[in-house]
Prior knowledge:
heterodimer; A: alpha/beta; 8-stranded mixed beta sheet; globular; B: 18 helices
Amino acid sequence: MPLVTEHGYTPDDWQTVDDEAPLPTAGKVVVPPARLDEALAVERLRVGVDVAGGVPLGNLLRRLTRIDLVRLRFDSFSDGRGFSLARQLREAGFEGQLRAAGHIIADQWPLLRDCGIDEVELDDALASRQPAASWREAAGAIVGSYQRRVTLPAVRPEPFAQP
Amino acid sequence: MYRYDDFDDRFVRARVAEFRGQVERRLSGELTEAEFKPLRLMNGLYLQLHAYMLRVAIPYGTLSAVQMRILAEIAERWDRGYGHFTTRQNIQFNWPKLEDVPDILERLADVEMHAIQTSGNCIRNVTADAFAGVAADEIEDPRPTAELMRQWSTRHPEFSFLPRKFKIAITGSPNDRAATKVHDIGLRMVRNDTGEPGYEVAVGGGQGRTPMIASVVRDFVPKDELLAYLEAIMRVYNLHGRRDNKFKARIKILVHELGLKAFSEQVEAAYEELRGRVRVDPELVRTIEAAFAPPAYDHLPEASPTFGRAYEAIPEFARWADTNLLQHKASGYVAVTVSLKPIGGIPGDATSEQMRALADAADRFGFGELRVTHEQNIVLPDVRTDQLLALWRHLVAHGLDTANRGLVTDIIACPGMDYCSLATARSIPVAQAISERFGDPDRQQAIGPLAIKISGCINACGHHHVGHIGVLGLEKNGEEYYQLTLGGAPEGEAALGKRAGPGLAAAEVPVAIERLVDHYLAARADGETFLQTYRRLGHETFKEVLHAVGD
């Protein structure tokens, strides 16, 4: 599915494996939380985990070290729980790729970035409605952040991601 | 007051440009109406019954004479020559055209104003005691903290898509004039055992269809950790607040359903995570505090002979001085409330001409600063006692001399069915009829403090739940009717009113209120206010006098 990064629309080299399908022996896969242990056991696999819309992170926060990608689902663009989940992951020290997926509009892109999200995965319909220019303009619309301004640069990890 | 620096200026102008683009993308179809809606709301733009409505932020109710003049200009150029000051210390323009809105926002940006977060499911414009910085009873001026919260909450990346709107109110005084207990978060400045100033934090108050008084979730948060603590509350709410039902999505429902103890444990856990990370920049705090340093007051004696002579000679002036003044920190000064509640008028409305007259008054009789109160009046915070007569004459010339602060005709009313798409009944004509009925100034003064608040639907924008007498407009089978509540109070010992009596037709409301007032006047002990008599005698005796109304 279409993927937006800071460079605009970008090919997605991660493969989603659902509850049933066999795991590949190498490559990059995103799995449901229930298959996380199984996937991590495959030596040459890079592993991402899928977090359903707004679900509390719970134990995931304590086992981030070998996870390379977390995908946070947004069931609706107006459901802002994913923003908090993203910051919680970064505050817990997660340094891998952080992806938002689902119903997201370009106007949210800079806010997502400030919460530590690197990329956005969209379905084809949403992507075709929102050309690369919209994401670029949204990213550049507002320079600076009041949150970075009012707070001191924190001991790592940063509370608000740097642009 | 706080002045924008380059950062603020760039930010606000960038927001205008961003909104221009969003309007274009909506018109091109790139954005659906559902997607555009929260974006326009976060820029203060509502779609009302007859037209768009633009709500302009007046942060913590403080504005300059220069800004007031631009509001007057906007009302003239893009609206119908008037504006409506709201219970959230903002101003609303009722008739702008969508295509004009970016230009209006641009003009606002010229004078350090905006409409950001006056609506939408985000942290709304912070409200504060309208007498902040000047009231004699204050521990500390809350405006620096209010400004800090304005900055912190502006386009907060984590909290821009909350379950529902979020309102924060702050007071620096033990006499809570900011109605903090009916806000999502109410902050009250206190000192801890070592004398250090900080905040008592109350959560989960609110009006609307499920009115609740806020509960104290923490007795003391040090000033420099306030933002971390607020983020903790916001995070718990953002993650766990209900999103399945719009009417149960406010934080008060979360606090109620979890229980205060469980809610507070979650907040404390989040606070532990955040307190080391979200640390306020003390340099910025100092800059903000400096902006609110007291103006250069003249050294004056407490009493003014000029004032004394005028007070003795002119009864109308004396009456106004008795009702519309508040004691000031500085000797020889008072804070003046200019009532926007002329008898028979529309509560909170001001014409462009009146706005300019207010701006002139602020320049001539103050330091060029004004405040908007949550009672929908205007405050001139720093008036020399010996200039009160000259000020009063100026106000008389512009129809701004109504002597009724806190009295029965100082009515709060929402726009109601005359403007609002949510309303189920009209509010303004009811307010006008009550005002006419009690218009006699001697009678008002004899009745004493009495707060009547009118909402045109259960969303309670007219704060009827906290009216000493509340009036709620409803609708049944196409007919408007009104339900009274008694004994509410926004401040001090905050209380929600209790329902009383049958539904009333609009024309019966003034009659019913008159009966309540007569009952109070007959039963009151020496020096007792309506609310005190009500509390002493109890709900039932007042309720009984309503039964005959409408028979």
